[in-house]
Amino acid sequence: MKTRFFHQFLMLFIWVFWLMAPPLYSQEKNTPDWSDFIESLTEMMSEAGEAETLNEELVEDLYAIHCNPLNLNDLDEEKLKELPFLNDIQIIDLLTYIEKHKPLLSTGELMAIRSFDYWTRRLMQLFCYAGELPHHSPTLSDAIRSSKNDLTLRTDIPLYTKMGFANYSEESLAKSPNKIYRGSQPYYSLRYSFSTLNKLEAGIQMEKDAGESGIDYFSAFALAKNIGIIDRLVIGNYRLSFGLGLVMNSSSSFGKLMTLSSLARMDRGIRGHSSMMESGYLSGIATTMKITKNLHLTAFFSRRNADGTFNSDSSSISSLKTDGLHRTLLEKSKKGNVRKLDFGGNLHWQWKQLKLSANVSHTHFSVPLAPKHDTAASRYRLYNATGSNFTNYSLAYAYVSRLFRLSGETAVGSSGGVATLNAIQSEWRGNTFTFIQRYYGAKYVSINGKTFSENAHPQNEIAFFLGWKRYLTRRTLLQAYFDYMHFPWLKFGVSQGSNGFDLTVQLQHQFTNSHSLSVRYRMKSKQKDLTWTSENSNDTHKQLGYNTTQSLRIQHQINVTKSIQLKTLLLASMVSNNAQGNRFGYGVGESLNWKFPTHWIHPKSKYEPIKGGRLAISLSYFNTDDYDTRIYAYEPSLLYTFGMRSFFYEGIRTALLLQLPILRHLQLITKIGSTRYFNRSTIGTDLDQILHNHREDLQLQLQWKF
Asked: How far lies 700's CA from each of 34, 203, 334, 610, 667, in Å?
């Protein structure tokens, strides 16, 4: 009870501090903050309620650009495609402006570009600068002198014990060998990246998850760019993206709100695999060659081991395991027991505003896939990937003009299925309208496909998306979309064809450079099997019905001074269906972010990402009826990680993060978090169960840039 009063006192202290803010308010112009951008991006990508499964690779890609900003006077379309908040019109306008007015003297000149709004200009300051162009071709000494290295070490130390780490007798383990994790509790990771003059990149990643014994994951790559006719050449682990992703996309995907800006982003091409994601990447060699100025050819070959669960006959795989965890004897037995071979290519042609792309991908498994679908509960797997060989072909297309932007991709698979995705976007009198049509047949199987979809893969979905975006004033942005979905075949928990819709409205207003407010409302409804119990008997029956989730998010942010920032977050959720009625959840959060100078360690640097220290404190109270009414809130986190967390039941979450430069290019980041439940005596289930109502974690990260 004392702990609960302490948390309430801490929240009260931050609120009192916020009420004292107006007298301290500063009208000085504030530059955008990296942590604010990541929070906004995370919110948009987690809107689907799947925050725990977000791909960290997008954060890594953007952080690498943030640390190595792009020179506005040395840009091309390929580089600008890496910024997901830019649309094709903005890219064309920027390149045209630079060509006419080179050299640019500052990022302030972006105000002269009509298509660049207030938010876009501020975001560009995180990733671009106006610098001088080299006066001669770079030499080997220039490459060595300009090389950038980043070495990051991390460890997570749990201050609690899960049941998987409890002490059991030898006799007990002999009967149940999978009741314990075979490794130690702490998490360890190491990542190293190297880059120089936009010509060469390399990286190494190593990781041990909690419960694993020894380094369980190792990855490395080397990527060369812009060398003669070779646009890109990668050896090692890498990612690919062709067309709009129906055939090949092992890169990150964006949320629906981000799609309003990143529409028609075709052929993102080859990238090194630099994350700790242990699945979804390719391993081998890939290259893109410039056949002519307008014609590029990409070819790839990959061979790697994947995790799989064998059927009882041990001759086929029931499912692929993608979480990368190998903690128990059972999990270890699934490690690398199937070989996956991929090869294919992409032919990309561009003439003025027209783009065409032909794509092909073939996948072979050493052990055939044979998902079970012999029961009523598993019948939805009937059209899941089955067999050893899978081939997909597609044609992608895009046309960009001042009046509209058209893009699409149509694909066929060796299983006989068809998939097509088509989108058009137009601007009229300050309004941006987006229409997306998608048809993914139930028989269409794409092992490496990932695109704009409600499902995890482009399969069993017919949908129409309508989006609208308008600047009500120069600093007031209104965005909305409506997405209607039909699933012709069965889904997990749904015994027949079903429907659903997704409606979101978001309003953002920037009062000043230091004061903003955002409001988001979302309603998402899908049909599923609902279970009723008769009033006069214990008989139960199932019937298809709508399960509707509504959520409201309000965030107020104010920069009290150039160094102190306060945020207030209000959250609410409601889940309703005819079988269970209405269930509710709500939460309130407060955070304080203080950036302090460290001039005694290193002098001021215009583009140095490590400019000083940072102290962030966040406190959240949550109260939900159950897991379905959970709420999501962002909290400051370590580098290369998403800070979105889900909360359910009743409790308080406290987090403190300290980012402290030790030397000029060396910094230590420490985070300690505590979650305490008021209506639970245990946390988690099975091997992850904690036999008390609170859990504390300590995270340490050391980054050396040289």
From this structure: 20, 21, 31, 17, 11
